[in-house]
Amino acid sequence: MQQKVVGAAALTSRATGLTIATHTGAAVAAMEVLDIVEAVGVSPDRWIFVHAQNEHDTDLLVQVARRG
Questions:
Q1: pTM of this prediction?
Q2: How many CB atoms lie within 10 A of CB 68?
């Protein structure tokens, strides 16, 4: 269900230019969000990683940041 919602948000962003914000606390889930966003053709910089502070592995946070 969450993948469908993120996909719908990405399609909406692509059509409207709106930014996407997801309440995603874990970097592993954030990487999945980025995969979906990019697959739809939306630039990763159109997405906000809400609650990134809940991820304690800074290496994973850096990986997410490097993607855009």
A1: 0.90
A2: 12
